[in-house]
Amino acid sequence: MAIDFTKMLYNPAYAELGVKAMLTTTAGVVDITVIDDTRPKTHTSGGVEARSVGPGAFARIPELMSKNVDRADYINSMLAFNGRMWIIRSYELRGSPNGEDLGDVRFLLKSSDD
Amino acid sequence: MTDVREALLARLFEVVSNIPNMRSAHRNNVDIPEDQMPAVIILDGDEEAATDTSTRPPTKPQVVTMTPGIVVQVQDDNVVLGSVITTFRQELLKRVLTDIQLIQLTGTNGSIRYLGCETDVGWTRTGFAVLTARFTLKYPLKANEL
Fold it and tell me: How many angstroms from the chain centroid is the CA of residue B135?
């Protein structure tokens, strides 16, 4: 019998590391749990380094699907968590041994302050 | 006693420091945090003397070509990033190529030329762009005046 990674891995990890987030799509507003994945980011060009952050967040695809958030809704949706508001500029599916629809998605974010 | 190379680089720094809407200016600082952007960085770069096979004394003037780099870093909305970096390029070229002090420092046998630029874009907290402009500055090196 296949291991249920949602039950054995993702749900406990999100219960421990996740924070409440508000996702605003064109269809409405839903509360989800995300794991903050904001990382330092260095861009080197012309021999000079620029230091900033690459904001990101993980979310579980089953939770998004259960709240009627489809892939087509991801880009340009607003995601608020940990006191900041971001815009989803892109995403990458992370997959799961049980299939990509049971894995998580990494949202690539940009500042909403522009 | 004057080191023309240092005088040119110092003046170049002054010129780019006055570009409108630039938050910070640096010389040979290669590590810029985001709260310093838009930033302009002068890299001293290399220099090369003109080939001279004559038997003239070493104290005679010889023409040296400097190749400093000027890097502009910008963080902004990805949609406007292109026009923002282009505006900085325009200001940069105008100020470097028309600066009277730079022209005087290069002397009558010297010159200032724009070689071109490279751009690079990416993502950080917002959109991010870099423009690296290259110039040549030719000046007479006079050993007796160092």
Answer: 6
**Model-level pTM?**
0.89
A55 close contact with B: CB closer than 8 A? yes
**Taking CB atoms and an 8 Å cut-off, how many pairs form between chains A and B?**
76
Q: Mean pLDDT in each 10-residue stretch from start to end of chain B (146 residues)?
A: 91 97 96 96 94 82 94 94 96 97 94 96 94 96 87
Q: How far apart are CA B93 and CA B99, in angstroms?
A: 10
Strands B31-33 and A48-54: parallel
CA A111 to chain centre: 14
Please state the ipTM of this predicted complex: 0.82
CATH of A5-39+52-111, one of 2.40.440, 2.60.40, 2.30.30, 2.40.10: 2.40.10
Q: Which of A45, A76, A113 best tests the B interface by mutation, with the highest count of B CBs <10 A?
A: A45
* Residue B141, domain extent: 4-52+61-145
